[in-house]
Amino acid sequence: MENVLDASGLHTYYGASHILHGVDFRVGRGETVALMGRNGMGKSTLLKSLLGIVSPRRGKVVVRGRDVTGLETSAVIRHGIAYVPEGRGMFHNLSVREHLVMAARKGWDGRADWTYERVLETFPRLAERLDNMGTHLSGGEQQMLSIGRALMTNPDLLILDEATEGLAPLIRREIWRVVRHVKDTGIATIVVDKNVGVLLDLADRHVILVKGEVVFDGGPQQLKSDSSILERHIGL
Ligand SMILES: Nc1ncnc2c1ncn2[C@@H]1O[C@H](COP(=O)(O)OP(=O)(O)O)[C@@H](O)[C@H]1O
Ligand SMILES: [Mg+2]
After folding, report:
1. Degrees (nearest 5) of the Cα angle 10, 38, 183?
2. What's any GO biological process attached to this entry (predicted)?
3. Nearest 10 degrees: Cα torsion 192, 197, 202, 208
């Protein structure tokens, strides 16, 4: 079956710094892929390279069989990708309701599974804060709004970069609950997160980056049965 995403041979630079060194990265339909690696290894840069936020100098990005290499980010995401970036603070003077309503769109195939009502059912906290301005939300609520907004675009692939970073345990649990729910509905996900335990339990496949190169690509069983891989590359 056709992959949702197929990237090959990606080389990305920031000025003269060569960050990604020929990365191959794919995501199958409905697959949950954990993108792992220590800080500064190139995880966020890989995600940005997939989305055209930074332009890889070499390599190719294919979304559902279409070459999107070099396209504007807005064009790439129209092929069915939703991105929740690292950090928050991207909320302007809009209410929660406005944020969600503005994000609403059908999937590339006309799917409209994720509606305003469904997002509010999924995140009851947001339903209680509809008239709040995005900037007046707690960190956890902002993250929920980010994810809610991403789901409103009815993506095939949801990308979460450190979505639980800096959040209280209760809010983290809430976010993981939603990620599992999203997985159960058949949406593919790329998850970057520090909580390796959760990732081992959640992901179908794990990709580990070291200095901009893929050093591991395999299933959770493989990582669980050979603890030296995580020790060496993640430091556990
Ligand atoms: N905008 C940027 N300009 C220059 N260097 C950057 C920029 N963003 C990230 N880097 C560098 O690229 C490398 C990879 O960073 P990043 O992709 O953010 O890693 P990760 O997400 O795995 O922590 C790091 O050495 C980082 O310092
Ligand atoms: Mg990062």
Report:
1. 75
2. L-amino acid transport
3. 40
Output the residue whose Cα is nearest ligand 1's atom 5: 14
Q: What percent of the chain has pLDDT over 90?
A: 91
Q: Is pLDDT at 88 greater than 70 in this prediction?
A: no
User: How far lies 171's CA from each of 34, 164, 182, in Å?
Assistant: 20, 8, 17
Query: What digits encode the pLDDT tens for the residues 56-82?
Result: 999 999 999 999 999 999 999 999 999
| Ligand minimally distant from the alpha carbon of residue 14 | 1
Q: Do the strands 58-63 and 32-36 form a parallel or antiparallel pair, or are they unpaired?
A: unpaired
> Long-range contacts for 164-172 (Cβ within 8 Å, ≥24 apart)?
164/193, 164/194, 164/195, 165/86, 165/87, 165/193, 165/194, 166/139, 167/139, 167/140, 167/143, 168/140, 171/138, 171/139, 171/140, 171/143, 171/144
Residue spans per domain, the chain: 5-233
Locate 97 and state its tokens: 């309701």
Rounded to 5 degrees, what angle do the CA atoms 230, 21, 199 make?
30
CATH architecture classification, 5-233: 3-Layer(aba) Sandwich (3.40)
Q: Is 149 exposed, middle or buried (0-12, 13-18, 19+ CB in 10 A)?
A: buried
CB-count exposure of residue 12 (10 Å: 0-12, 13-18, 19+): buried
Give me ligand 2 centre to Cα 109, in Å.
31
